[in-house]
Amino acid sequence: MSPALANDIITFTFENEKPTYRATLNAVAEARHVRAVFLERQPKPQRHAAMASTLAKPSLEMAAGNLIRTWLLKKYKSMLVDFLNALEIKNEDGVVEDLPKEMDDAKLKTAVDGLLAKYPPEAVAVYLNAFNDMNEANWANLKSFLEGDPRLQLGGHAS
Asked: Are 70 and 20 contacting, i.e. CB atoms less than 8 angstroms apart?
């Protein structure tokens, strides 16, 4: 994802979800072999840039995933609900118990187009990538959309 979006996610979490921010900061400090207080003493822009670059490492996939899930559920809950409702999947505030094993191409395209019309493209791309990576369904057609639709490419959009 773009550095601007990574900073937005970390800043949003800092301002709205202190426990998640603290857990993420601690994970980053441990990965960098420093104490969390060392990072806390840095100016926020420098600290958040260091956090974003460290969270990109495979060893911090769980911490990064938790940060992204929290951001999506707190800042973009309406996007999650809109997507699932467009797919006619029962959900409770964007949370689903059971996903279908596959999804109709036309229905999926309509749902994705609806999200892109309403939300920032890079935020949509982050959500759809997270959705496809973090659930058991892992729809092949969604993977194809993510790989083939230029609107869903991570890192190329301003946030």
From this structure: yes
Token code pair at residue 54: 């460290």
Nearest to 132 by CA among 158, 102, 109, 156: 102
At 11-32, the pLDDT tens digits run 999 999 999 999 999 999 999 9
Please name the residues in contact with 84: beta carbons below 8 A apart, sequence gap of 6 or more. Answer: 90, 91, 94, 96
- Asked if residues 68 and 59 have their Cβ atoms less than 8 Å apart, the reply is no
Cβ distance 46 to 104 under 8 Å? no
* H helix intervals, the chain: 3-16, 18-32, 36-40, 44-55, 61-75, 77-86, 105-118, 121-133, 140-148
Q: Which of 68, 132, 62, 144 has its CA nearest to residue 99?
A: 132
Under DSSP, the state recorded for 93 is: T
CB 60 within 8 A of CB 73: no
